[in-house]
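Thread amino acids onto this structure.
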């Protein structure tokens, strides 16, 4: 009986060994076939001849994968936006060892831990002891924000996402604001100060750096803080971080406020001309850019026959009617239009 059991065990072991060797051989052959498939590195811009430009009829269509746009190479008309990149990205490497792609999601600075920590859902899967898994998930959440710095970042960046959404700002502004706040936290500038007030100041700075400026009145209306508090925290961060912010030009406000007022592109162009002439004459120095924009839009609306009242412009731009009248008189007396 013992000999029979021994023979059965040996036969089972032999079959397992043969199966493992066969599996290893199949896997090795699969890796060899994949390694022979050299993936060509696609340029940032490709020329496709399949489409036809609806404007000029040209077949030279360029595909920019960086901007996710398809445009005409002759007249420049954008034919399609937000192109979906369906390229299969794996772990293949070239002869120099450089990876063709990446695994997993990229690091996100708008999340306190970078968005690269592992998480699980105890409600999914075939877990026998769900109570234990729920306790593990609770402790995992505590470990992700174990230090005071991580707790501060977790709270601040969560509020930052809500603030950016309320102000209808882009992701670039959100990333820039998160970078500024992280730098302020590393320099211990947050200690003893309100997180909410510093966040509003960082968003205001990020808007200026990203060339999408917002007025203090807009920031105050969207956040509930007064302009004095926002300006105080803005000057504090600007001084301590040594930021070199670009000056706000009245031209940066024209497209957005002209759209809110329902003015035509002709009025926008005329407003740009008025602001440029005023800048050449030195009339914009020391003046609030929003007030110059309001006066130029008021004048341009009259020149193109789309007149808007001073009350409408004042409510839209957040300036007073007296300011609009004063700036308009200065421009009209100095400029010959």
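Threaded sequence (337 positions):
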């Amino acid at each position: 009986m013992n000999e029979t059991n021994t023979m059965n065990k040996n036969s089972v072991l032999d079959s397992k060994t043969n199966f493992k060797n066969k599996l290893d051989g199949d896997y090795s052959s699969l890796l060899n076939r994949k390694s022979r498939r050299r993936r060509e590195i696609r340029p940032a811009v490709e020329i496709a001849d399949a489409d036809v430009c609806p404007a000029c009829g040209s077949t030279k269509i360029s595909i920019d994968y960086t901007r996710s746009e398809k445009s005409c190479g002759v007249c420049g008309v954008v034919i399609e936006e937000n192109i979906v990149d369906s390229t299969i990205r794996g772990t293949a490497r070239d002869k120099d060892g450089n990876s063709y792609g990446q695994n997993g999601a990229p690091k996100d600075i708008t999340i306190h831990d970078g968005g690269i920590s592992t998480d699980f859902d105890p409600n999914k899967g075939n877990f026998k002891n769900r109570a234990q898994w729920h306790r593990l998930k609770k402790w995992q959440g505590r470990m992700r924000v174990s230090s005071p710095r991580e707790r501060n970042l977790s709270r601040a960046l969560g509020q930052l996402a809500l603030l950016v959404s309320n102000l209808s700002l882009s992701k670039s502004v959100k990333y820039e604001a998160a970078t500024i706040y992280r730098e302020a936290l590393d320099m211990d500038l947050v200690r003893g100060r309100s997180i909410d007030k510093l966040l509003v100041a960082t968003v205001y700075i990020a808007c200026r750096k990203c060339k999408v400026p917002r007025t203090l009145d807009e920031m105050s209306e969207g956040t509930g803080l007064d302009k004095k508090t926002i300006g105080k925290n803005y000057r504090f961060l600007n001084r301590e971080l040594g930021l070199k912010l670009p000056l706000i030009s009245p031209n940066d406000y024209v497209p957005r406020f002209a759209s809110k007022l329902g003015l035509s592109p002709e009025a926008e162009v005329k407003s740009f001309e008025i602001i440029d002439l005023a800048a050449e004459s030195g009339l914009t120095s020391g003046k609030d850019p929003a007030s110059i924009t309001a006066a130029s839009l008021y004048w341009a609306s009259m020149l193109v026959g789309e007149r808007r009242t001073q009350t409408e412009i004042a409510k839209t731009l957040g300036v007073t009617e007296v300011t609009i009248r004063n700036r308009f008189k200065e421009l009209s007396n100095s400029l010959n239009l």
